[in-house]
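Complex record, two chains
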Amino acid sequence: MKTMRTPLKKVRYLGSAKEGADHFWKLRVTSVANVFLGIFLVWLIVSLLGADYATVRQKLGNPLIALALLGLILSGTIHMRLGMQSIIEDYVHAEGPKLAALMLNTFFAIFIALASVFAILKLSFGA
Amino acid sequence: MEATSGRGVRPERPLSPHLQIYSPLINMVMSILHRITGAALYAGSLLLAWWLIAAASGPDYYNYVSSWFATWAGKIILLGYTWALMNHMLGGLRHLLWDTGHGYNLKTIDILCWGSLAASFLLTAIIWAFVALGGI
C-alpha cells in the first residue's frame, strides 16, 4: 500500500460519480454537431443572399435542408442553454437571482427552439 | 457541501489573484473571447429565429425583415455574428483537442490560440467576400 489515504478521501469533493459529467458531455456532443451544422447554416444563408421570397421558401422547404436546420436548432439551443448555464453559475451567486436566471435561460432556449422549429415545419408542411 | 476545516466554520483564507492582476496572455484572451462570443451567439439566435419566422410568415414580412438585415447596422451585426461564430467554432475545436489531453505544450498553446484567432478573421473575410460577390 503506497498511501495511507482511504479511497473516500481521494474522491470526496471531486463531484458526482453518477451524472456529474452529464453537462460536460452534452456540451461536447452538441459542439461537434454544431461545427458541421454551423458551416451548413453559413452556406445556406450566403446561398440565399438577395434571393426572392419564392426561392427562399422553396429552399427552406427542401426536406434535406429542413432536416439539417432542425438538427441545428436542436443541437444549437441545447448547447447555448448549457453554455449560458455555466456563465450564470459563474457570475450569479445569490440563490434567488441565480434560480431566476437559470429558469429564464431555459425559457429563452426553449422559446428559440419552438419558434424556429415551428417556422421550419410550417415552411415544409404549410400551405 | 464545501471543503471546510472540518470544524464546521470556513476559515478566512487569502483569495488567489484574479483577472485584474495578470497582464493579458493570448490563451487567457482567447478563453475570455470564447465566452463572450458564446454569449453573443446566444443573443444572436434571436436573429435566426426571427429570419425563419419571417420566411414562414409570407413575402411581405420576409421582405420587411430582409430590408432590416440589408441596412448598414444590420450588416455590421451580421458581420459581427459571422466572426463570433467562426471564433467560437475554432475555439471549440481547440478545446476539443485539449479535452483529449493533447496540445498543452506552452508553445503549442500559443500557436493554437494565435492560429484560431487569425483563422477566425480569415474565414470571416472569405465568407464576406462571397457576400460582396452576391452569393454563391
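Note: Residues 40-125 of chain A form one domain.
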